[in-house]
């Protein structure tokens, strides 16, 4: 999609927020029932899973069946390192706009998912999210586009490389524990990812907004990934999950990572684990940042419910699907605020 420089510049939410602008009509929700105006009910913190604990698999199973997500504190990353990751994220978004635009998602007038900007504008009636982001593929190595990796702050690349390595180790450990929790071979899920699974990083900036009751930081959705790792803002809440039919705030410990189920794992688990619908809301006086890592199978690999989870008591609930084909369904529907998982049900 070709977009003029004037339109592209208008789309940077951080600039509008710094000027104190009222949200333009393209960001305003059309239906009153979609508004995040009403404070969600208080809920207990997201369950904590202790990785390496003798009962970790049962802790994971319980958390995923009740929340679709859990938090990890003993993740192999120190509190100081996670704070450093937050610091380089904030430092990048605090750079002058001209510096950030060096990494723009728009090259030669065309939109690309990797880079700095926000989500693609695909239709005239699309409601836009009140957020800017930096999206980078971090694995496999040959899929990195280092031209889009910020050189300022100077430690950004080293911190991201370290976070990538440690996140991947944690993801493999979690996938093994999830399999064991269902009495499966520990490599049952990992084997469906292929030789070249993909890990993408998304650095999110949610500027404050004059009318947070009229916009979404990120629209309600489930993730297209298999698993998502989230480092939330330590001081500002904003992530909400649909639980038992109502929105609740996701409350976590200050130095915890959130592990969130994605659509691909719902398929692999034959629906035993559900990919939760979640959203991000904004507020009037505080910016919010977060970092998300999306772990997905190799694009050409066909995934499906694990054979051992299909039986007379629980028949097959999902078709086999290649990730690249699922994404062709997912992204246009995500931009319109629609879910996709039901389209691959048997």
UniProtKB/TrEMBL annotation:
Q: Which UniProt keywords apply?
A: Iron, Metal-binding, Oxidoreductase
Pfam families, A to Z: 2OG-FeII_Oxy (PF03171), DIOX_N (PF14226)
For whether the record's keyword set contains Metal-binding, the answer is: yes
- The chain positions of domain Fe2OG dioxygenase read 197-297
Q: Record's InterPro entries?
A: DIOX_N, IPNS-like_FE2OG_OXY, IPNS-like_sf, Oxoglu/Fe-dep_dioxygenase_dom, Plant_2OG-oxidoreductases
| One Gene Ontology molecular-function label | metal ion binding
Q: Which domain of life is it from?
A: Eukaryota
Q: Which family does it belong to?
A: Belongs to the iron/ascorbate-dependent oxidoreductase family.
What protein does this entry describe?
Answer: Fe2OG dioxygenase domain-containing protein
